[in-house]
Specification:
Largest sheet: 12 strands, mixed
Helix content: 10-25%
Radius of gyration: 25 Å
Organism: Prunus persica (Peach)
Shape: globular
Number of domains: 3
Structural class: alpha/beta
CATH class of the largest domain: Alpha Beta
GO molecular function, one term: ATP binding
CATH topology of the largest domain: Rossmann fold
CATH architecture of the largest domain: 3-Layer(aba) Sandwich
Protein name: AAA+ ATPase domain-containing protein
Strand content: 15-25%
Keywords: ATP-binding, Nucleotide-binding
InterPro entries: AAA+_ATPase (IPR003593), P-loop_NTPase (IPR027417), Spore_III_AA_AAA+_ATPase (IPR045735)
Oligomer: single chain
Number of strands: 22
Strand order of the largest sheet: 11-10-12-13-9-16-17-18-19-2-1-20
């Protein structure tokens, strides 16, 4: 029997097709790929929301919760807001941007004195004019935006656009970066299961991958869908937009502006003490004082949603200013017997205390997230020199068809016995939406296993392992 079924040991990855009952234009397919699964592995429920990105149809999709995305700007509002940013440009450049096929995916416009202006799109840079930028061009743009703060950032009232200035040694503006801001409904729905239970969430990623877009949607989701008291501490008015009236993209969430970026940690404590929030949303934690304030807030039982610059969790561990977010790192000297039992040197690094956040998300790109469901476990695993377990969530859009997939990477130690067990699949149907079809196959990690390893076949409800 084993010889007849040996070809099953080299299949394609386990695939689950999950088709929602949506209009044909927005019908979604959900694919899940599971690698090596140890005992008691569970199937996470599948979400069909769309993460951050700039496809034009995103604004038309609604959330899976009872509350729809009506609180976010519709397509017409996005057109108006984009037009207000393009109004900063001279007529010739504005017309050339409007003719570009990727107009609605515009990332930013760069104007440097004496250089050709550039518009940056996902496909690359696009020259807007053969004539270099003049002082008059810069003055025309700066006259239509708000005042530049000490961090050289300004905005356009009631929009999410960010205008950043470059100054010379005398303080005169010689360059502008006009960054497009968008409130995209559904951009955070791949993380809905992580925030709805009240867990604190830390998003890590390099600049430009959509961290602010995601936490803005999380703030709206928590305030509108889950009726929580949400307070946003908005350092540079990027989350709630410029001006005293916040942008509609944050829904019913409230917003506190930070007069000086160096005082953000004080505004965090003030928000907790004065306004009794259930959720605090912070963008760009970057100093030790801010990390300490976030840790203090977490100890008061308040849910935190924050971002930090970095690529992976390891970057936070190695950053002395932000290591407190993951519990802090300390060196510990082990006894001879304990060091021998662990198989390590006598001096090792360990986590000092509890992490400020319960979950961590590494934003790889606008359509790929790497989820660490237990941030403390991930940190402990990294400090012990092993690879942490994580879950990859991806989004693929082809025209009007949106496909999401999840891939779980489970790393086991060498002394653990390899087993391949799948938990009850019917439980998955209770968590998901619509009809579920199961195609039983074997984990691709088994492709390298040979008969010499004596993998015993196991007959389960959904296939042979």
């Amino acid at each position: 029997m084993l010889s007849n079924c040996f070809h099953l040991l080299h299949p394609q990855p386990l695939t689950q097709l999950h088709i929602l009952t949506l209009p044909p234009k927005f019908q979604c397919k959900t694919l899940a790929f599971f690698h090596k699964s140890p005992p008691n592995t569970y199937f996470p429920h599948f979400l069909t929301k769309i993460p951050s990105g700039y496809p034009r149809f995103l604004g038309s999709l609604c959330s899976s919760s009872p509350s729809s995305c009506s609180a976010s700007p519709d397509e017409e509002d996005l057109e108006v807001e984009l037009g207000r940013l393009l109004a900063l440009l001279p007529e010739e450049m504005r017309q050339k941007v409007g003719e570009h096929p990727e107009l609605h995916q515009l990332i930013e416009v760069v104007m440097d004195l004496g250089r050709k202006p550039l518009a940056r799109f996902p496909s690359g840079d696009f020259v807007l004019s053969e004539l270099p930028i003049t002082v008059q061009d810069l003055e025309h743009a700066t006259s239509q935006v708000g005042d530049f703060a000490i961090d050289n950032r300004a905005g356009i009232s009631r929009t999410l656009h960010r205008i950043s200035a470059i100054r010379n040694r005398k303080g005169a503006i010689i360059g502008l970066t006009c960054r497009v801001g968008r409130a995209i409904c559904g951009s955070a729905s791949l993380l809905r299961d992580l925030v709805q239970d009240g867990g604190s969430l830390l998003l890590i990623g390099p600049p430009g991958v959509g961290k602010t877009t995601i936490i803005r949607e999380i703030a709206r989701m928590l305030a509108n869908d889950y009726k929580k008291r949400v307070m946003i501490v908005d350092t540079s008015n990027e989350i709630g937009g410029d001006g005293d009236i916040p942008h509609s993209g944050i829904g019913n969430a409230r917003r506190m502006q930070v007069p000086v970026s160096d005082l953000q940690h004080k505004v965090l404590i003030e928000a907790v003490e004065n306004h009794m929030p259930q959720v605090i949303v912070i963008d760009e934690i970057g100093t030790k004082l801010e990390a300490m304030a976030a840790s203090t807030i977490a100890q008061r039982g308040i849910q935190l949603v924050a971002t930090a610059h970095g690529v992976t969790i390891e970057n936070l561990i190695m950053n002395p200013s932000l290591e407190m977010l993951v519990g802090g790192i300390q060196s510990v000297t082990l006894g001879d017997e304990e060091a021998s039992r662990r198989g390590v040197q006598k001096t090792v690094q360990e986590r000092k205390g509890p992490a400020t956040f319960s979950c961590g998300v590494e934003i790889i790109s606008k359509d790929e997230l790497r989820v660490h469901r237990s941030l403390e476990t991930t940190v402990d695993t990294i400090l012990s020199g092993r690879f942490p377990n994580f879950e990859v969530r991806k989004i693929h859009s082809r025209g009007s068809e949106v496909t999401t997939e999840r891939e779980i990477f489970l790393h086991s130690s060498l002394d653990e016995e390899d087993e391949y067990v799948i938990e009850d699949a019917p439980d998955m149907a209770d968590r998901g939406f619509g009809h579920i079809d199961f195609t039983p196959v074997v984990s691709p990690n088994m492709q390298e296993d040979s008969m010499d390893e004596r993998i015993q076949p196991r007959l389960f409800v959904y296939g042979l392992f």
